[in-house]
Amino acid sequence: MPASKGREMTIPDTEIDSQCINTIRTLSIDAVQAAKSGHPGAPLGAAVMAYVLWDRHLRHNPRNPSWPDRDRFVLSAGHASALLYSLLHLTGYEMALAELRRFRQWGSKAAGHPERGLAPGVETSTGPLGQGFANAVGMAIAECQLAARFNRPGHEVVSHHTYCLVSDGDLEEGISAETASLAGTLRLGKLIVLYDSNGISIEGPTGVTFTEDVGARFRAYGWRVVGPIDGLSVDDVDTALRACLEDDTHPSLVICRTVVGYGSPNKAGSAASHGEALGEEETRLTKRQLGWPYEEPFTVPSHVREYMQRAVDRGARLESAWRGAMAAFAKAFPAESTQMEQDLAGRLPEDWESLLDRVKLDAEPAATRVVAGKALNALTAGIPALTGGSADLSPSTKTTISGGGDFSAANRAGRNLRFGVREHAMGAICNGMALHGGTIPYASTFLVFYDYMRPAIRLAALMRLHVIFVFTHDSIGVGEDGPTHQPVEHIFGLRSVPGLTVIRPADAAESVEAWRAAMANNAGPTALVLTRQNVPPIDRSRGVAATDLTKGAYVVRDTNRTPDAILLATGSEVSIAMESAAQLSAQDIEASVVSMPCWELFENQPREYRDMVLPPDVRRRVSIEAGITLGWER
């Protein structure tokens, strides 16, 4: 069945098209001018493609922006945020005109770049170019997985598209190459990308730096490429989108030739319109050039508002039809319906923690990556939403889901994601999966390659996404691979990201508890930092159980008197601290040993607990960790 069948379309006359497009343009440049800061050029040039998509093709409900089966729209070119805010306002989302008047100002929903959770209708936080594109691929993967898990003959309850608007800059960033290559391999046919090809960047014409044949590049990746088309033509954009919707066998790239700053008499087609306000006089002249008859800024003609807000009723009907389909699905497949609702809500099974009881803890030394892999498999047995993979390293990171199958063009139900050697894309794709909902994604690689993933991890933390990043080979303990593979500053690098929970377990017992904490932490991402080498089980006979990992730090070896010193350690160095304490005790120096697998969790504990673990009057404290010491002075 063609993908567009049954999709509600509107075919307005040419005049109302023009007036709606110019309303989008003028709202955008008025917002930028009011802020005296922003990017007016992209909204002026991309307004046509955005309007056609939102008016004729995008299935969304302004009154319920989180409707699960809506189409997703990602503005990867986040600098064009005024374009998105204008669309949200005109189609009936909670984006009042007052917010546009306060564009880029403190407290406004219309932030300088789109921020998820701030404005309803914003699917992801974008701005760092290329990240949104990869998020969109993650959303498309999540849609495929959920459709494979839940759709049944006669009950297609998961079926939507992911649209993304990208700029020249998005496609220049290296992450786009990784992302597009994987998307083509996976044949994500419900992913449609509009490329605003205007040939201008901040420094001037892109011909100085970006001369490749983008269409040929994407065809080589396995994409369907449409165009170049006239991105300023309503009919051309509409025809291109319809063609993409009729073929869901490949992801689609629509190359739209546009003019940055379209309509500006003195700045169109130049870098002068890209990254700064046009100026009051040029704004006035641009409106005149566009045939805009209104002098008052932020004018929305009543007939335009009435026309654009038909999206409200249309969206309500689309969602109502879906809810009717869900009711029929629930009647025919009650267990699957319950599971689907639970996964979309991000809820874990009530007894999920008992799954970890299946992990047997041996008395022999074991690498924390190995035990963590067993914990992962125990969890996946009872949490079908848990899915993920590695950057071609799963035999080493121990993150393969046994019996889960590989997600591929031929197997949409596969739970193991083969990202290939693509850490940049992997992190951002997992973010997109979490943003979509219905999945709990994880990504794994060696700790030293965290450098490739930092932008995505930072954004995961900003957006408070439930993504789990698994890093193994966490110290010089990787051995013979040498200094290029021996992380030194990386643990601190992870800890420096606000909102990221970093857990470095000391032994097998803590490895199980680390996964427990990561699954429970649905308020943000978690990084698990694991050893390659075997570490001995910690003797906790003089301390407390490993379940106290959830408190971030706890005493694993107490003293019979006020300690002379405190040894604080993480990961593989906890066993070293235990040995050191025993040697000190033989010299009548009593040192308590504190395992501190997670600074962030410890800092969130009450003062009373922190003082119990680290008595304020014991000032002799030694940190033991295979990495730079920055931060331990606290």
Summarize this, please?
This protein is an alpha/beta fold and 634 residues long. It contains 22 helices and 19 strands. The chain has a six-stranded parallel beta sheet, sandwiched between helices.
Helix content: 40-55%
Task: Specify the structural class.
Answer: alpha/beta
**Low-pLDDT segments, ≥5 res:** 1-12
Mean of pLDDT? 96
* Major β-sheet annotation: 6 strands, parallel
Fraction of residues in β-strands: 5-15%
Strand order of the largest sheet: 10-9-11-12-14-13
CA radius of gyration is: 27 Å
Apparent shape: elongated
Q: Termini, distance in Å?
A: 62 Å
Number of strands: 19
Q: How many individual helices?
A: 22
Overview of this protein structure:
- By secondary structure, the protein is α/β, with parallel strands linked by helices.
- Helices cover 40% and strands 13% of the residues.
- It is built from 22 helices and 19 strands.
- The chain has a six-stranded parallel beta sheet, with helices on both faces. The protein has a five-stranded parallel beta sheet with strand order 1-2-3-7-6, with helices on both faces.
- Helix 19 (508-520) links the parallel strand 13 (501-503) and strand 14.
- The protein starts with 13 loop residues before the first helix and ends in a 10-residue tail after the last strand.
- The model is unreliable at 1-12 (pLDDT under 50).
